[in-house]
Specification:
This protein is α/β, with parallel strands linked by helices. The chain has a domain of 189 residues: 3-Layer(aba) Sandwich (Rossmann fold). Helices cover 35% and strands 25% of the residues. The chain contains ten helices and nine strands. Strands 3-2-1-4-5-9-8 form a seven-stranded mixed beta sheet. A two-stranded antiparallel sheet has the order 6-7. Helix 6 packs antiparallel against helix 10. The N and C termini lie far apart (45 Å). Keywords: Methyltransferase, Transferase. One of its GO terms (molecular function) is S-adenosylmethionine-dependent methyltransferase activity. It holds the Pfam family Methyltransf_11. This is Methyltransferase domain-containing protein.
Amino acid sequence: MNERVTWQLYNGAALNYDEYRPRYPHAVFDILTDYHSALAPLRSAADVGAGTGIFSRQLMASVPSIARLTCIEPNCDMAAVAKERSAAFRGLDVLAGFAEMLPLPDRSCELVTAATAANWFDRPLFYQEAARVLKPSGTLLLLQNKHRHEESAFLDDFVSLQERYIPGFRRDHYSDFWGSYGKADFEAELRSRHDLVSVERYKLEWRQTTTAVQFRGYCQSGHLRMAIARSGAATIAKELDALLDRYQDASGYVIVDWLTDLVLSRARPQEQPLGKR
């Protein structure tokens, strides 16, 4: 496993991550429920690459039929915050583990999710594992929160800042399993498989109004930490200050335009016995 360049990035960042990372629009859970509604109720789920449990807690609160949810997270700092912040959610457990080797029995879940995490995985291995732990016709949900930089001068300039200070980073590319940056087309990848079927994709556009302080906290919770480590905290803080000075309003707020990109698929249904219809 590629420990140094993947989950260790978040060492020491877990509290900022949980505080400042965006949540997911409620429409995600309506889409999930509609997609799965003709099947058995969602009772057992696994959230892979769960981080501090942001999506896990939203999932349990929004889909009350889920009685057991396992957060799987390799980073000790992130997992510790997930345990602390999720203590009130009965049936939510946190396990150390990897997407490529899920610590779950075969056919044990109706739902497997990865929320702004699957770009980090060795996805062919993860898809194989997801198909293994899903019950027949169980649902796999992948979703990513993405900046709509093409529609926002603020976010376009923010991407340019990252391109200047993070080696190898390019817009519309995401951190990957190998410690570099690449494009991840979950829909195409899933459509090419025989063990995961009925692929559907949805795109949800939404807007977040956040303070400059909150935006700085967001920046300190992710891969901009690489720029800070390389160029120094003072240099990156100066760049962020200049960016925010250009775009924040008189009250110190900036607008962040988001796209939540969802891809759903199902584990192949169990074959019917001969003579059954």
